[in-house]
Structure formats: C-alpha cells, structure tokens
Amino acid sequence: MIEVKHVMKQFKGKQAVRNVSFTIEQGEIFGFLGPNGAGKTTTSRMMIGLLKPSEGEVWIDGLNVQTDTKKVHERIGVVFELPNLYSKWTVLANLQFFAKLYNVPHDKINEVMASLQLTDRANQKVGSLSKGWKQRVLIARALLHNPKILFLDEPTSGLDPNTARLIRDYIYSLKCQGTTIVMTTHDMNEADELSDRVGIMHKGCLVALDTPQRLKEKFGEDTMVVEYRDDEGVKKEKLPLYSEETTEFLYKKMKDEVVISVHSQEATLADVFAKLTGSELS
Asked: Using only C-alpha atoms, what is the Rg of the chain?
C-alpha cells in the first residue's frame, strides 16, 4: 500500500532524513514516532507529496508520489495538527466547499457528519467550536472523498479525555473498514493502543520498526517499584525485576520492616522511546 524506498532529504547541506525505507500494509495503523527534529515530519511530508526527496522514492497504492501526485491525492486524506479551516464559515459550509473539489455528493457529507456526531453543529461557525469539535471537522473533511489512506498528525493532542477517546475509537473503526492510517503522535499510550506497528525516528534515521509489544520485549525492561520509609520520609526505588540486586535490596528493607508497598511494572513504549532516542515523550 505504501512503500518508502531509500528516501533522503537535505536542507542547505544538512541531512534531515537519512536513507529511510519501510512499507505499510493495507488496513494497518502505523504509528510514526520521534522527538522534535528527528525527521518524521519531513518524511511524512515527502509521503504526501508536499516535499520532494533529495534521493529515493515514495509509492502509494502503486503510484509514484512525485510523478502521480494528483492521483495520489485522490487516494489520501490528511489531517494536520493545526486547524486549517475557514473559521467564519459554518461546519456544513466548510465541508460543502471541499466536497465540491472532489465532486462528493451531499449524502456523503451527511454520512460523514453523522459518523462524527457533527450533525447538530452543522450550522455553527467553526470559529466558535472547541479544539475537539474542530478536530472532528478536520477528520470529516479528510474523509469526504473516501480515501484509502488517512494521514493523521497528533490526532488527539490537547483534547479532553472524552473527546480523545471518541477520536481514537473512530480511528480504530476506520481501520476495521480497511482504511490504512499513518499516525504521527507524541502520545505513547495512544501509539501503543492503536498501532499495529510503530516506526521510531531519531536524527534522521529509522532506528526501530516493529509491533509495540515486540519493541517492548526487545528494548524494554520490566521493573519493580519499592516504596519504603527511611529517616528522610517515604521513598521509592525502581529496580530491575529479575536481579540479585533487587532481591537483596527488598530482603533488607523487609527485614527492617520499612516496606510500604511493592509492585511490578511492565516496560512501556515510552521506556523504549527513551532508550532509543535518549528522550521521553508523554
């Protein structure tokens, strides 16, 4: 469905993306992760035809993104992190305008609005909407022409928990309908929950590519958290789950009768990210 082949990108002699290659299958949710400046946004822009690679090729649905850009755009939908809607227009007017660009019938507008619970807000001006409702409008607009592939940039950033949950459930429902989704996010829990596979960029390179579970097994480490009392008050120690050091530490604290609680903690995608990039994402 998507093939990124030995893609490189230079800006004024600086290498932003270094020989990146990967594929994304139909119906897959692909989580694209990396710290700021890692090259993931540049790679994403090359994937949708907004930037031309210095070297390499990107293919979508059998089409070369650089030479068949118009046909590619007919097959993809894009939701940018920053809203780019007409704020003085109503929700319906925004969707009608973009529907005309793709010759989308009015019934499709109604269908998409209903699926994102936008029907009751059809005549409300976009400028008066909260960020969560604007995000729904952006997703609705991207889906009007029934794209095979949806690119999402930080789909739930800054949203309240209920709206974020609705958006995530909707993303998963699109996957179940066969839509391929490329999702850039800083939310590790979101990436772990939704992604079939995750690609992690660092310093322009793709440093990891696998399922979240396999990445956690390969790079993560299960730990034990011991909460105990000492002369300075209550403290916590995070220790490797299976080690002699942990056993000795716990034995001593229990012997001194200062242990408050003990619990194990599985490796997280954030742990993997920190290990591979030296950074943490929330």
From this structure: 23
Amino acid letter for position 155: P
Per-residue tokens: 66: 């650089």
Q: What is the pLDDT of residues 29-65, one digit of tens each?
A: 999 999 988 999 999 999 999 999 999 999 999 999 9
Residues 116, 79: Cα–Cα separation, whole Å: 15
The CA-to-CA distance between both ends of the chain, in Å, stands at 30
* Alpha-carbon span 258 to 254, nearest angstrom: 6
Query: CA dist 69 to 43, 66, 143, 152, Å?
Result: 16, 6, 18, 19
Q: 136 with 116: CB under 8 angstroms?
A: yes
Task: Answer for the pair 218, 260: CB distance below 8 angstroms, yes or no.
Answer: no
CATH of 2-213, one of 2.80.10.50, 3.40.50.300, 3.40.50.280, 3.30.70.1350: 3.40.50.300
Rounded Cα distance, 148 and 126, in Å: 27
The yes-or-no verdict on residue 119 having pLDDT over 60 is yes
Q: Would you list the domain boundaries of the chain?
A: 2-213, 221-266
Contacts of 218 (CB under 8 A, 6+ apart): 210
> Do residues 174 and 181 touch, judged by C-beta distance below 8 A?
yes
Handedness of CA 118, 120, 122, 126 (dihedral sign): negative
